[in-house]
Amino acid sequence: MGVRLMVVDDHRLLAEALASALKLRGHRVLAAAAPAAGAADLVIARAPEVCLLGTAAPAEPGVFDPVVKIKRERPQVAVLVLGPVPSPRGIAAAFAAGASGYVRHDERIEGVERAIMKARSGEAAVAPQLLQGAFGELLNPAAQPDDEAQRLLSVLTPREVEVLVRVADGEDTRLIAAGMGIAPSTARTHVQRVLMKLGVGSRLEAAALAARTGLLDRAGPLNPGPD
């Protein structure tokens, strides 16, 4: 017996293609719509058995708010999240919001259908390989650029961060001093402190470390701060 479904995704063509494939397999697809402010309201109004809800960024804050709203208003609707390979945090956030499962965007239609049937029957629908990958990352976490950048930023003063940004931009001591309105000797001292705190031996190494960890992106625009 077919399942009453809704497909909601950022990419309308993907949503419509998935809806068409599910219709061919005997399911009743109520709608295929791109998410908007009223996406959750549409699902609530139509009350399908299962809703396939797409997201491109499962780790973004608030991305699963529609799931929360749907489950609050229509707890009988099983919500399956469609997304990229998620981090453990992404999977946890989806389930914490009330989702019944997580399916990769590139999953074969047979896998999507299995997830739909599990979700309708009240089971958690997550591919074993996704769980294995999540547990593997939790047990053996890889150093994340943002985490390393945050650690480095925490040991530098705002003024030292500005010095590092200028060093990465290729400014020499004279330009750093002129740009910050300080004496060249003071600029030179700041540079030496930055190198020491980062554990590197040269300006080139400091610039490379800042770029590799994503520190420059997190530092934001130049904004002189206190020493």
UniProtKB/TrEMBL annotation:
Keyword DNA-binding recorded: yes
GO molecular function: DNA binding
Keyword Transcription regulation set for record: yes
Record-annotated Response regulatory domain positions: 4-120
Pfam families: GerE (PF00196)
UniProt xrefs under CDD domains: LuxR_C_like (cd06170)
Gene Ontology biological process: phosphorelay signal transduction system; regulation of DNA-templated transcription
Boundaries of every HTH luxR-type domain copy: 149-214
The organism's taxonomic lineage, starting at the top: Bacteria, Bacillati, Actinomycetota, Actinomycetes, Kitasatosporales
Protein name: Helix-turn-helix transcriptional regulator
Keywords in alphabetical order: DNA-binding, Transcription, Transcription regulation
UniProt-listed Gene3D superfamilies: 3.40.50.2300
Species whose genome carries this gene: Streptomyces filipinensis
